[in-house]
Specification:
The complex is a heterodimer of chains A (627) and B (183). With 627 residues, chain A is mostly helical. Chain A has a single domain, classed as Cytochrome c oxidase-like, subunit I domain (Cytochrome C Oxidase, Chain A). Chain A contains 18 helices and 2 strands. Chain A has a two-stranded antiparallel sheet with strand order 1-2. Chain A is globular, with a radius of gyration of 25 Å. By secondary structure, chain B is mostly helical. The chains are: A mainly alpha (627), B mainly alpha (183). The interface between A and B is large, with 46 and 35 residues. The complex binds protoporphyrin IX containing FE and copper (II) ion. Chain A: This is Cbb3-type cytochrome c oxidase subunit I.
């Protein structure tokens, strides 16, 4: 049980501690805007993420109007959309594509990557590992401001004459590479690339900080095997990010050269209006390889933090140790590794060698194993637990449900033969919206409900939380479940209009149902918004440890200041899941309680550890190394 | 496992740079395997710049050792030479490009096989950009040495700079050998 070297961080931190003191009485600008405090940066990410979630959600409702009510007159949207509504009161077909593209980009990158990791990795890593702040507060601040810039650039692209990018969130060339191809491939696409480049910088700065902090800045006694699963999840997420986002950068770089400098990395043999383009010799499939080498890991960048958050919340609110702590870590590690070697399952129908396809099929299907381990462990943690249905808990259970229903369809899609029918249909849309979109979104909401007391010192209203949960949970299934049927029937995604096809007109009512459910679900989010902002100022004052949880963040003051703990950083003596330990006085033992104080509940090997607790001044366990 | 957090951050940054070039060189190989590929000779200048950057790694190490022994005078000389060699490398790469142009290899070609040239320019150019960032870092450290801000008791910045510089050297060696082998 020896931990890694613990002294070093003192030496290292010497300088930083000084600057902390100087920072204490910052003015408005350094406290709220250009703050280097991880908690403030987390809130900045959260608020920006919520803003984008609203924009992304609204976009989806607009294109759902087109799909659910193809004959509807959309004249009334003219004040907002202006020229994008045709004189006949219809949505401009090219703008429809722009809406789908922006919806995907915003949700995947801005909401579920920056909004989720940015908020919770920033907020929880220092608080849960016992550090005063991130390894580099300055780079952390830069990370937010790069994200902000990236957001601004994307936002500006909405107001272009030619509209924002419209080639899908995956921006496949040649469509995205040729400004002649579609309006959105002009300036809109350029801004998309600029924005994503800034986003990649932001994400890398963030990830580098998260990894460094987890490895180097843990408090006394916080060995890796005592880290809460949230931290493990953020840690793996950051590693995946460092390894995969640079590849997206390379993909985008070559695309920029093709678009702006006339090279032919991705372009070949293209005729527009009967004229051959000068580009020749490139391969559009190359882009897909590069893109999905990021793209598939990216879906886990989105999902893993949500899984970590729900592990924590489910254990706390089941009042039980998480079932299979090491198995949870192991399966996340396995998922992280596998995520780099399955990318070609997005490319089964690109004319790939069928043998290669079957290798990728095999690797893809193996992901089901660690995923199933995780679901099993969630269920066994809940099993016979003393469950407290807090809003955070409900959303976490909802996540498990979506992860299961959405993951199962992944197994269908992972079969290269079945995928020929299902590829690019609404079946894929249903799959990834459940497993990635909804599951991660629920993880994010669960995290907000659970850690709101720590973020703002007040409680959110639970009744409104329940209402929000049930509306959203039922709404999500009403939106995405029918899409499976439509998809199996062959209904293609990203089609503006389908009413001309005899085969598909039978789905008109199903599509209408989906659209109505989408509108209701989006509206339900305003319950949350009200609750969020109202509770921030008027909510009930939060007790120090509202959920009786064991982790370190609940040992800070109600409103932790810069530096998190007023005195020394507490030491850690046990793992974070001592809930309902037999013999213990309470049904939870915080990580800061030494075994020497809990003789009534110690296991034999834990009694052994007591000697080590007192053998050195800090009461931490053995220190390796020569310091 | 624990180390200076900022140094650790530099390592992680280098990992992400490796991924960028890993992606570019694999794209190169995938595209080459599809055939229709223009064989090219690397410009002779690239051999010279390879020598220059190797040498600069040596002077960087010299600077580092001098700082460690508090030989600030020597360190000043060594770090200045490193900076000059860094700039010389960049100039040399530029001249290498002019040689390429003279040999008829352009960033943009009219021929299906010209994409090999595009790769050559993009890969060496992106590496050059990283060297620009390295030179800036060296200059920052140079100023700090001249102001006695870096000495044997305050080595972190020097170490990070040296690590990054050696990394850029190693990265170029990888790219150079790669381009030699996979023409
Ligand atoms: C058992 C596990 C899983 C398997 C076997 C699987 C398999 C697949 C396959 C084969 C596709 C491509 C379908 C097509 O385009 O024809 C796909 C699409 C997708 N999957 Fe999964 N998946 C799994 C889990 C996940 C998870 C956990 C996430 C996210 C957290 C996810 C997110 C996505 C996304 C975003 C797409 C669609 C991307 C697009 O084309 O726009 N999948 N999945
Ligand atoms: Cu995938």
């Amino acid at each position: 049980m020896a931990t890694t070297d613990i002294h070093i961080q003192h030496d290292v931190h010497h300088h930083d501690d000084h600057s902390h003191d100087e920072h204490h009485e910052g003015n408005f600008w350094t406290t709220y805007i250009f703050s280097q405090d991880h908690k403030t940066i987390a809130k900045q990410f959260l608020i920006t993420g919520i803003f984008w979630a609203l924009v992304g959600g609204t976009l989806s409702v607009i294109f759902r109007l087109q799909l659910g009510f193809p004959d509807m007159n959309l004249e009334w949207l003219k004040p907002i959309l202006g020229g994008w509504i045709t004189p006949e009161g219809k949505l401009d077909p090219e703008f429809y594509l722009a809406l789908v593209t922006m919806h995907g980009t915003i949700m995947v990158f801005f909401v579920l990557t920056a909004g989720l990791s940015g908020t919770f990795s920033n907020f929880l890593i220092p608080l849960q590992v016992g550090a005063r702040d991130m390894a580099s507060g300055f780079l952390n601040m830069l990370s937010y401001w790069f994200f902000f810039l990236s957001s601004m650039v994307m936002l500006v692209s909405f107001f272009l004459e030619t509209g924002p990018a419209a080639g899908g969130w995956t921006v496949y060339p040649p469509l995205s590479a040729l400004p002649q191809a579609i309006k959105g491939s002009g300036m809109g696409m350029t801004l998309w690339l600029v924005s994503m480049a800034l986003f990649i910088v932001s994400s890398l700065l963030g990830s580098i900080n998260y990894i460094t902090t987890v490895i180097n800045m843990r408090t006394h006694g916080m060995s890796f095997t005592r880290l809460p699963l949230t931290i493990w999840a953020f840690f793996f997420t950051a590693i995946i990010g460092v390894l995969s986002f640079p590849v997206l950068f390379s993909a985008a770089l070559l695309l920029i050269f093709d678009r702006s400098f006339g090279t032919s990395f991705y372009l070949s043999d293209i005729f527009i209006g009967g004229e051959a383009l000068p580009h020749t010799g490139g391969s559009p499939i190359l882009f897909q390889h590069l893109f999905w080498f990021l793209g598939h890991p990216e879906v886990y960048i989105v999902l893993l933090p949500a899984l970590g958050i729900s592990s924590e919340i489910i254990a706390t609110n089941s009042r039980k140790p998480i079932f299979g702590y090491k198995a949870m870590i192991g399966s996340m590690l396995f998922i992280a590794i596998l995520s780099f070697i399955v990318w070609a399952h997005h490319m089964f129908v690109t004319g790939m060698n069928p043998f290669l396809g079957s290798i990728f099929m095999l690797l893809t299907l193996i992901i089901a194993v660690p995923s199933a381990v995780k679901i099993f462990n969630y269920v066994t943690t809940l099993w016979k637990g003393n469950i407290r249905f807090t809003p955070g808990m409900l959303f976490s259970i909802g996540l498990v449900s979506f992860f299961l229903t959405g993951g199962i369809t992944g197994i269908f899609l992972g079969n290269s033969a079945i995928d020929i029918q299902l590829h690019d249909t609404y079946f894929v849309v249903a799959h990834f919206h459940l497993v990635m979109g909804s599951a991660s979104f629920f993880g994010m909401l669960a995290g907000i409900y659970h850690w709101f007391p720590k973020m703002f010192g007040r409680m959110m209203n639970a009744k409104l939380g329940y209402l929000h949960f049930w509306c959203t949970f039922i709404g999500v299934y009403l939106v995405f479940f029918p899409m499976h049927y439509i998809g199996i029937a062959g209904f293609p995604r990203r089609y503006y209009s389908w009413t001309n096809f005899e085969t598909f007109s039978g789905f008109a009512d199903l599509n209408m149902l989906v659209s109505i459910a989408a509108i209701v679900t989006l509206s339900a989010q305003f319950i949350f918004l009200f609750n969020f902002f109202y509770s921030m100022f008027r909510g009930r004052l939060a007790p120090a440890n509202p959920w009786n949880a064991t982790t370190l963040e609940w040992t800070t003051p109600r409103n932790p200041q810069h530096g998190n703990w007023p005195g020394e950083i507490p030491s850690v003596y046990r793992w974070p899941y001592d809930y309902s330990k037999p013999g213990a006085k309470d049904d939870f033992i915080p990580q800061t309680i030494p075994y020497s104080e809990t003789p009534e509940s110690n296991l034999p090997h834990e009694n052994e550890l007591i000697k080590l607790e007192t053998s050195n001044g800090h009461g931490a366990i053995i220190v390796e190394g020569k310091h | 496992m624990a180390m200076h957090p900022k140094k650790f951050g530099v390592w992680l940054f280098m990992v992400s740079v490796v991924m960028i070039f890993g992606a570019l060189t694999s794209a190169y190989m995938v595209r080459q395997a599809e055939g229709n590929w223009l064989d090219f000779e690397l410009p002779t200048m690239f051999w010279v710049t390879t020598g220059i950057i190797l040498l600069s790694s040596a002077t960087m190490h010299w600077a580092y050792l001098s700082v460690k022994k508090n030989n600030i005078e020597t360190a000043r000389v060594a770090i200045s030479i490193t900076a000059v060699l860094g700039v010389a490398f960049l100039v040399g790469q530029w001249m290498g490009w002019t040689q390429l142009v003279a040999a008829g290899i352009h960033l943009v070609g009219r021929d299906a096989s010209a994409v090999s040239g595009s790769f050559l320019y993009v890969i060496s150019g992106l590496h050059g950009l990283h060297v620009v960032s390295g030179v800036i870092f060296v200059l920052v450290v140079l100023v700090a040495i001249f102001r006695f801000k870096i000495h044997s008791k305050n080595l972190a910045q020097m170490e990070m700079c040296a690590t990054y510089w050696h990394f850029l050297d190693g990265l170029w060696l990888y790219l150079f050998v790669f381009l030699l082998l996979y023409r």
